[in-house]
Structures are given as C-alpha cells and as structure tokens.
Amino acid sequence: MDIPASVNKCIACKKRKSEQELMRVVKNKNQILVDPRGDLPGRGAYLCPDELCVNKARENKLLKKELKTDIPDDFYAEILEKIGSE
Ligand SMILES: [Zn+2]
Asked: How many domains does the chain have?
C-alpha cells in the first residue's frame, strides 16, 4: 500500500512533481536552507534539482519572491554545488 506522495510545483519551470523529485528550500529562523528531508518548519519553496531551474530562479529572483526574503548569492552557489555533486 503506497502512501500517496505529495505533489509540489517547481517555482522556476512550474512543473508538478512529487516531493522526492524536488528540492525544498526553506526559510527557517531567518536562514535560508536546503531541506533534504522536507520536514523543516518554515515557509518552503520547491525547485527541480536542475541547473536550469536554479539559474532561472536566481535570475528572476523567484526564491526571493516566494520566501519573501533576500537570498544571498552564496546560497545559489551552494545549491548548484549540491546538484553538481549528486
Ligand atoms: Zn523546475
């Protein structure tokens, strides 16, 4: 018996995917974090673990809009690095 996976939408390409296929970025106590297990409290946004979507989010300030906070440029470098290492 499968537990239905929750479906979320990438903020860059707007594709709907299951939570496992997306990377959750969360604003937690004024910090921006990647939430690998999807269980951190706070406002979250989803992105494909894909360079195109991450770059699109960076260029269009999508995370900033979604999480209502400034996203340091280092953070994008960090997620790009994570994606590259997978
Ligand atoms: Zn995407």
From this structure: 1
Among candidate residues 60, 58, 82, the one with its CA nearest the CA of residue 72: 58
How much distance in Å is there from the Cα of 83 to the middle of ligand 1? 13
Q: 54 C-alpha to center of ligand 1: Å? A: 8
27/14 Cα distance (integer angstroms): 20
Query: pLDDT, tens digit, for every residue of 37-64?
Result: 888 999 999 999 999 999 999 999 999 9
Q: Provide the domain limits for residue 75.
A: 7-84
Instruction: Say which amino acid occupies 32.
Output: I
25 close to 34: Cβ distance less than 8 angstroms: yes
> pLDDT tens digits for 10-27?
999 999 999 889 999 999
How far away, in angstroms, is 74 Cα from ligand 1 center?
Answer: 20
User: In this structure, is residue 2 part of a structural domain?
Assistant: no
